[in-house]
Write a structure and sequence with these properties.
Number of domains: 2
Mean pLDDT: 89
Number of strands: 8
CATH architecture of the largest domain: Orthogonal Bundle
CATH class of the largest domain: Mainly Alpha
Distance between the termini: 28 Å
Number of helices: 10
Order of helices and strands: HEHHEEHEHEEHEHHHHE
Shape: globular
Strand content: 5-15%
CATH topology of the largest domain: Arc Repressor Mutant, subunit A
Helix content: 40-55%
CATH superfamily of the largest domain: Winged helix-like DNA-binding domain superfamily/Winged helix DNA-binding domain
Low-confidence stretches: 271-280
Radius of gyration: 21 Å
Length: about 280
């Protein structure tokens, strides 16, 4: 299989497909069995589970000598956001209403680390830098959740706006976003998946399903979702999205049967119990 595999992002992928919305927890041993198909060691899986518990993303549930891992409320919110981006928002923005969300800020040098954190969060939320201290994103973005933890106070201004002549929306896209970089990521996805036999070294369709969904989610999370009318007609996200949906449908039945065989599940009520203090 090609490229490095990040255990935590793959763990999120597994949980998003097989745990989200089901009030269930997975036995660590069965997760190790699944990830062995992807070339990940038992040590890597156990350390990933432990880190995710410490970060408040997973909680432990005991049954006898077995330890199961279920989602916390915060992890469920993260995964639900990913589900919306994959299945509802999509990769191609054909419904842009002409508005932009504008974020302007000016922070003193004493808050340099906050400035760095804010820029990182804005990029993650789909914003591009138009000019010094002024960031834009297509559509109306709810940035309150991004800004609140940073305690910016009067240092930040958030507006919605439209372009007026002599400014053109196409110019804003060109100035604030590296469209070639975004396109390059979609072309890399197509190089890997738009073939007659994607990932022939993968052992089965469960492994392919997890890698496919993981690759696609990383793509759409990094995509600023720019208006299609201001992108080239051959924008590669159009083809890439078609390939993703086609392969997702192809892999799902066999992957689901394999997962039902391999994954050991424990029913849990949402928010039930406290994290176990034991190991996994």
């Amino acid at each position: 299989m090609e490229g490095p595999v990040r255990p935590q992002s793959l763990m999120f992928t597994l949980l998003g497909i097989y745990v989200l919305g089901r009030d269930t927890a997975l036995y660590s041993g069965s997760v190790i069995d699944v990830f062995a198909r992807l070339g990940l060691s038992e040590e890597a899986v156990r350390s990933t589970l432990t880190r995710m518990v410490k970060r408040g993303l997973l909680e432990r549930h005991r049954q006898g000598r077995k330890v199961y891992f279920g989602l916390t409320e915060h992890a469920a919110e993260v995964l639900e956001d990913g589900r919306r981006r994959i299945w509802e928002t999509g990769a191609v923005n054909n419904g842009w209403d002409g508005t932009w969300t504008v974020v302007g800020f000016s922070l003193p040098d004493s808050r340099r680390s906050t400035r760095h954190d804010l820029r990182s969060q804005l990029v993650w939320a789909g914003f591009g830098l138009l000019q010094s201290g002024l960031w834009i994103a297509p559509g109306t973005k709810d940035v309150a959740g991004v800004l609140a933890p940073l305690e910016l106070g009067d240092h930040v201004t958030v507006l919605t706006a439209r372009a007026f002549k002599p400014t053109e929306a196409a110019d804003l896209v060109r100035k604030a976003f590296d469209t070639e970089q975004v396109a390059g990521r979609y072309r890399a996805f197509l190089d890997r998946w738009d073939t007659g036999d994607p990932l022939p070294a993968a052992p089965d369709d469960l492994a392919r399903q997890l890698l496919l969904h993981n690759d696609w989610l990383q793509l759409v999370r990094q995509d600023p979702h720019l208006p299609a009318e201001h992108l080239p007609d051959d924008w590669p996200a159009i083809r890439a999205e078609h390939v993703f949906h086609t392969l997702a449908r192809l892999y799902e039945p066999r992957a689901r049967r394999l997962a039902d065989t391999v994954l050991d599940e424990l029913p849990v009520r949402s928010g039930e119990g406290r994290p176990s203090s034991g190991g996994e």
